[in-house]
Write a structure and sequence with these properties.
With 350 residues, this protein is an alpha+beta fold. 34% of the residues lie in helices and 25% in strands. It folds into two domains: 6-169, no CATH class; 175-349, RNA polymerase Rpb2, domain 2 (Dna-directed Rna Polymerase Ii 140kd Polypeptide, Chain: B, domain 3), CATH 3.90.1110. 26% of the residues are buried.
Length: 350
């Protein structure tokens, strides 16, 4: 097997940077987002419902276009004081303290009582353009043309211009998505055993925390709900109505099931699925009519809670079983049957 000398390694590194450059990963990531990622986010949302009980109106979302429907501008532009719009290059954005951004339009189809109306292309905003990406005018210019546009011909791009300032996306290390992490919070007078997960799906990320507190009860926090929800209440809202179902979703071991007694006490009076949903709705939309409170609670459960498992009502039971697994791991940690989770990280752009 051939061995590489230091000179060979130096030559390979030099050839790599000459071929790929220092920011190719940023440009490839941005171009991928423009080509596919942005549309995937829209497709994940699908449609927008009017938040009025029994409303017949919906808006179905379609194709994303990088264009201003009125002026047909398809690249970075600026709107002047008199309302006129024209395309700009990065040098002008720097000098005038502007944001180098391109327009985004989205096909929207009104749906009334299940009947689709005419589809319209609607301007929804601007997206910052990464220099030298496929949306940037500079990516198509030669060295001589770049110099004519007051640009550095050797500038590799990979950054943005926001309000005239150059901004770059910095690579960060982040907790691995969709992995249960169990740990002990020892900041207070009494330790709190907890499990957390960064539930991630296309276009959405939710931090879910489950805590076994000093009173022996388990509580859950999630986006869209301003207060912690008792564990048993949330399990019932997810469709597990009987105490036995909830206990067995956590563990079949009696020793672990006995640890749930304080949690069941926190759910006294909340005996049915409808009671649990209303319990959550009272905290999400306090003071609103009951129907609206229930709707908001169901939206929080389906959309915000463990979205990587699903974002429809059909996924509730799977979410309950996953939540039961989180509770099981926390109880095992408390009883000394499980070690703290090593924080597995993954590199992302942030």
């Amino acid at each position: 097997m051939a061995e590489f000398s230091k000179e060979d390694t130096h030559f390979l590194l030099k050839a790599f940077f000459k071929e790929k450059g220092l920011v190719r990963q940023h440009l490839d990531s941005y171009n991928e987002f423009i080509d596919h990622g942005l549309q995937e986010v829209i497709d994940e949302v699908g449609e927008i419902s009017i938040e009025v009980p029994e409303s017949p109106y919906k808006v179905r979302l379609g194709q994303v276009w990088m264009i201003d429907p009125q002026t047909r501008i398809t690249g970075p532009y600026v709107t002047e004081v008199d309302g006129t719009k024209h395309e700009i290059y990065p040098a002008e954005a720097r000098l005038r303290s502007l944001t180098y951004a391109a327009p985004i339009a989205l096909e929207m189809t009104p749906v009334i009582d299940g009947r689709e109306q005419d589809t319209e292309l609607v301007y929804i905003g601007n997206i910052p353009v990464m220099l030298k990406s496929k949306l940037c005018f500079l990516s198509q210019l030669s060295r001589e043309e770049l110099i004519t546009c007051a640009e550095d011909a050797d500038d590799s791009g990979g950054y943005f211009i926001v309000n005239g300032s150059e901004r770059v996306i910095v690579a960060l290390e982040d907790l691995a998505p969709n992995r249960i992490i169990v740990d002990i919070d020892e900041k207070g007078t009494r330790p709190v055993h907890q499990a957390k997960i960064f539930s991630t799906t296309v276009g959405f990320r939710a931090r879910i925390e489950l805590k076994l507190k000093s009173d022996g009860a388990i509580y859950v926090s999630m986006p869209g709900v301003p207060t912690e929800i008792p564990f048993v209440v949330l399990m019932r809202a997810l469709g597990l109505e009987s105490d036995r179902e909830i206990a067995e979703a956590v563990s079949l071991e009696e020793e672990l099931q006995r640890q749930l007694e304080p949690s069941f006490e926190k759910a006294l009076g909340v005996d049915m699925v409808s009671d649990a949903v209303l319990f959550i709705g009272n905290r999400v939309a306090h003071g609103q009519v009951e129907e609206y409170r229930i709707q908001k609670a169901e939206t929080a459960i389906d959309k915000n809670f463990l979205p990587h498992i699903g974002r429809t009502s059909e996924s509730r039971r799977d979410k309950a079983l996953f939540l039961g697994e989180m509770a099981c791991r926390v109880i095992e940690l408390k009883l000394g049957k499980r070690e703290r989770t090593t924080r597995i990280t993954s590199k992302t752009n942030g």
